Structure formats: structure tokens, C-alpha cells
Amino acid sequence: MRLTARMWVAAGACALASVGAVAFAGSASAKGIQSATITGPGLDDPIDLPPSEGNRGRLSALMAVWDVMPGQPQPPGLTEQAPTAQLGPRYTVTWRLMTGPDQTTAIRQDVYPDAAGGPLVHTAAGQPIFDGATVGGWYEAPSGLRDMLRVLGVPPAGATTAARSSPGTRGAAAAPSSDDPPWPAVMIGAAGAVALAGVGGTVAIRTRRARRRERVAPAPL
Questions:
Q1: pTM over 0.85
Q2: Contact (CB, 8 A) for 146 and 114
Q3: Radius of gyration, alpha carbons of the chain
Q4: Which residues neighbour 153 within 8 Å (Cβ) at sequence distance 6 or greater?
Q5: Strand, helix or coil at 117?
Q6: How would you write the pLDDT of the chain (221 residues) with one tens digit per residue?
Q7: Which of 15, 34, 43, 120 can bridge 96 by disulfide, Cβ–Cβ 3.0-4.6 Å?
Q8: 80 SS3 class
């Protein structure tokens, strides 16, 4: 049974409050996500979600990042094996969580937005955070996660492959047309025409000189 995006938002908020209370004894200044970064295929530069980015909170809820924190109940739908072998492109979200005054800890999750059957999130177990480590496993995320990633700039599956396989305009412009005559043949043909013209001119001049001598030669007595 999958939870809706709204239910995950509420669950994430509750988890945040619980983890903050346990780790920092109620210190409000040391709770929350400081920033997040998305990397993966098709991205020329990482997608940064600073503290002021409102989509960051929704993304963390859709990926159930707080549910894999130490001391939390195991989230429903978390499995040791991926439910499908058709995962598609992998993107990595690096969360920087506030773990103390002026201190952050990085937690990484891999997300497969185009996996068969719906988006999947994988969290590696044993990432140190707070007073413990993350719970590992595969999480079947709501379909809204794919839409959220598209809004943030993650391309659809196959878009980058199509862009790499399309020919560049510079290469297309440089390619010679099959209708154009090859330049070596043109030059040889031109040289031959010039040579023939020279020979023809020489023959014509000699013919005119011979006829002129015949006209001026004296008649025999």
C-alpha cells in the first residue's frame, strides 16, 4: 500500500521533529536539511537546492529521506531487493543535514525516476548520521517523484541519448554533396581542355601560314 504525497509530507515532518528531539535535545537551530544536490546523466551541471528552495522539502518527503534515519520505524514498502531489473537512468541526491551547530552531514540516495512500474529510491545502509546509521533498502516512491524531478530539470529517459546521436550542424555542413563534382577531376579536365585548345591553335596557325605561301609562290615558266 503506497502513501500519498501529502501523507509523506506529514510523515517527514513528524520524523524531522522526532530525530531533532532525540539528537539535539530540542535544539531548534540544529534541525533540518541545509541543502541538496542532484547529479546524473543529462545534467551539464548539478542541480542545487539551497535552503530557500521550497521544492526541497517536498522532494525529501517523496524520497522518504527521514524514514531511513536511525531509530525510525521501517517505512512501508522498503525492501532489500529492487522490485524490477529495468531501472533506467540513475540519479544521486546528496542531502546535507544539520547535525549540530554549524555542522552538516551528507546522506546520499539513488533515485530511478523511470524504473518500470514507477520511481524507485535506493538508500545504502550504514551511512553515519546522528547517533547511528541509515537503514538501507529499496523504496517504491509515489509517481509524483518523477514529476517533481522533471520540474527540477531532470530529463526524461532517452532524451540525452537522442541528443548525442543526432548529427551536429557543423559536421553536416562540412560533408560534401554527392551531386558536386570531385575537385581533382575538375582540375584535370580543365587542364586537358587548355592543352587541347593550345594544340588546336598551333595547328590552325600552321595551316594559315601554308596557305599564304601557296598564294605568293611564283607561277612556273
A1: no
A2: yes
A3: 38
A4: 38, 43, 47
A5: coil
A6: 444 444 444 444 444 444 333 333 333 333 589 999 999 999 999 999 987 777 888 999 999 999 999 988 877 789 999 999 999 999 999 999 999 888 999 999 999 999 999 999 999 999 999 999 999 999 999 999 999 999 999 999 887 554 444 434 333 333 444 444 444 443 444 444 444 444 444 444 444 544 444 444 444 44
A7: 34
A8: coil
